# Entry
Amino acid sequence: MSPRVLVTGAAGFIGSHVCEALVGRGDEVVGVDNFDPFYARAMKERNLDGLRRQPRFRFLEADVARDPLPLDGVTVVLHLAAKPGVRPSLENPASYSEANVTGTVRVLEAARRAAIGRVVFGSSSSVYGDATPAPFAEETAAVWPISPYAASKRAGELMAHAFAHLYGMHIACLRFFTVYGPRQRPDLAIHRFTDLIARGSPVRMHGDGSAERDYTYITDCVGGGGGGGGGGGDCRSDQHRRRGAGAAGPPDRVGRANSGAGGADRATSRSAGRRAVDGGRPAPRRAPAGLPA
Ligand SMILES: NC(=O)c1ccc[n+]([C@@H]2O[C@H](COP(=O)([O-])OP(=O)(O)OC[C@H]3O[C@@H](n4cnc5c(N)ncnc54)[C@H](O)[C@@H]3O)[C@@H](O)[C@H]2O)c1
# Structure
């Protein structure tokens, strides 16, 4: 029988790509999203266009912080629903706490009650705060977040650790470094720049132009070519499963992403990129080059 995966935040940028990859490899997917007004609902509806035509995809409009979750038959939960954005979180921190902390605890608790032992939580590189100068060192303790958004993500990781410790759940927290690609969130720089360029408008430069930043391409984030439909270096579908974004395969304490040669995985090559921890513990081992951990 195909695994059944619950994906929260399914109408969002990363969530919709993850759903497509999972459905594409034969999983049954239940997507949940509340169409948070952070950006236009119409964009999120468009993200779901292709998925809604897939018989293996079902969608429920629901708020993870308030509503019951459709967990019947679900074996893995990918929790990507969140209010994103560092700067906007300064405006309304309580709403970030509600969606990202309360929402995450409710997802974890619902998974525990339903005896679902595997959860993937979409965390963020922002949890490092100012603790590590570039390039990021992923082993640096993420202790002092410097925005409500970052604090809400770190709180989610700590909750994940508590659930993993108490109930033996396998929970991978993936610290995404800014993800880009088709359907990228409209608040993010690459989307804004390309939009301005497409309109023939100038792109305003901040600073002196010397700033550098690494990004992660969406298919690398999802898990590479095997599940994501290409563009992810030399990733294989077995790596995809083992990285936690997939539903099958054994629980994995450390799902280090290896997306192959070249620049496909710049975030990991320079800034230590995505980190998967089991309940937030430091990675116990490193993957040999080219192999999934
Ligand atoms: N895109 C990035 O570069 C990036 C970087 C670091 C972390 N992340 C994390 O990855 C996840 C996905 O990010 P994204 O860029 O796809 O953002 P997104 O805003 O496109 O997707 C998040 C989705 O979650 C939904 N959502 C918000 N609150 C909800 C709630 N209470 N109940 C149900 N659904 C809710 C939103 O409507 C949205 O569709 C988020 O958890 C985000 O914090 C993203």
